[in-house]
Amino acid sequence: MQIQGQAALVTGAASGLGEATARELARLGAKVAVLDVNIALAEKVAAEIGGIACQCDITSADSVTAAIDKAAAAHGPARILMNVAGIGGAKRVVQKDGSAAPLDAFSKVIAVNLIGSYNMTRLFAAACAKLDALEDGARGVILFTASVAAFDGQVGQQAYSASKGGLVGMTLPMARDLAQYGIRVCTVAPGLFATPLMKELPEAVQASLAASIPFPSRLGKPSEFAELAAHIVTNGHLNGEVIRLDGALRMAPR
């Protein structure tokens, strides 16, 4: 699918990997809707790329529907969905005081990263499936953002790894499910990237993390994630695939 002229939805697009993806799609000629819970930052990014900002809580069906409708009114129906929104968090199963990890902390990460991404996708897909087919019967492209933690999560990452592992496990059946409508589904599993959250760490810690990456021994650039996301849109034979983007990194237990 060609990106030029297509309407795209990017969740978590006010910062980090989502922002980089929104900027890259806009650079390639897409009409981009910047979806984020932080509407102030979303409006700033949207203004800079000529897009539209939509406040969106991906865990809420009403919020997602309102964002999709607002974006469609401005740009027409979207054929591209980039699910980049997500949260982190780490809790050991048994806490230092001997108590069990709080269940609500686990549930929140699953609710946002896994259920929220599915919620966004199901509502997008229902609308996209009704669109006229393009070349090769294509109607749309969906991207999930997992993590290398889906495969080699570290101590305390039970919730995060489970949520990202759920996205990995959902990729192929989702692609098979939506194949009849000409909607492709792929997932990118990034490693250690130079996001705003990462840059909050001391420089020595960032350097240590970068040194753990075989090659290149540096943190990933958000632009590299965005370039891969855009390539998935344009490469019509990429479907049902999970791609690690990590410089051959395999995470240690801690």
From TrEMBL:
InterPro entries the UniProt entry points to: NAD(P)-bd_dom_sf, Sc_DH/Rdtase_CS, SDR_fam
Gene3D superfamilies cross-referenced by the UniProt entry: NAD(P)-binding Rossmann-like Domain
Keywords: Oxidoreductase
Name of protein: NAD(P)-dependent dehydrogenase (Short-subunit alcohol dehydrogenase family)
KW Manganese (keyword) present: no
Family: Belongs to the short-chain dehydrogenases/reductases (SDR) family.
Coiled-coil regions listed: none
Alphabetized SUPFAM superfamilies for the sequence: NAD(P)-binding Rossmann-fold domains
Record flagged with keyword Oxidoreductase: yes
